Amino acid sequence: MLFPPEARDDSPQEPPAPSALSRNPVLMYVLLAVAAVYVIASLYLMFDMRSRLTAMEKKQATLETAQAEMNDRIHATSSEFKQALSSEVGSTKQEIAQRAAELERQQKAAAARLSAEQNQQGKQLAAVNTEVSGVKTEVGAAKTDIQKTQTDLAATNAKLERAIGDLGVQSGLIAHNSSELEMLKRKGERNYYDFTLHKGARTPVSTISLQLKKVDPKKSRFTVNVMADDKTIEKKDRTVGEPLQFYTGRDHLLYEVVVFTAAKDTITGYLATPKGAPTSVTP
Questions:
Q1: Residue spans of alpha helices (H) in the chain
Q2: Which of 8, 41, 116, 182 has the most CB within a 10 Å radius?
Q3: Distance between CA atoms of residues 191 and 180, nearest Å
Q4: Quick one: fold of 164-273?
């Protein structure tokens, strides 16, 4: 199908009217300048923004690096702290174990010392008990000895006798041997000095001196000189057990010499003096 031809307008047309910008070139330049400034400012802002973003990215990266380093340090510090804490705990446990071992050792040592002291005290107590038993035994023996001595004293007292001396004076108790002489000493009624005379020798006895002149053991007879007060008194041909009496001193005290054994060239006896008589002197 054919379309009909368009109608043609052959009438003359008017030229277009000029715009305001065409009519005002200054305004156009101002607008162009403003657009240029805007573009330049936009470009500057975009560049500055990009610089800031770059700086911020660098700062962020630096912060992230610092954070990572901080994390590493914190992790290292935490590890060191844990290790140190573990070491401290281990040291504390070791010290506690050592202290416990030391206390146990001290306790054992104290127990050993206590046991040793108890053993020592036990030994000492046993020794004391032994000593006490010994003392009891000794006391019992002493009692027995005392009883025996008392018995002997009673027997000896029965044997002791008085006699008339060669001056006709009643003598004290006469001892016939050393045992009876000891008994007289214990009684303490007089002072007694025992002696042994050797023939020819002058022997000091208490405050006097005695000298054996001769002796006949078979007949139990002897002769003796008594030296007292610068005088010599001869007791001639006397018998064993006979009280030989003489007076001496300023107070004229009665002394007695009794001989109870006679052997070859020796006699044994004692001198009896009153309690108030002078004491013995060194010859």
A1: 20-23, 25-159, 178-187
A2: 182
A3: 14
A4: Tick-borne Encephalitis virus Glycoprotein; domain 1 (2.60.98)
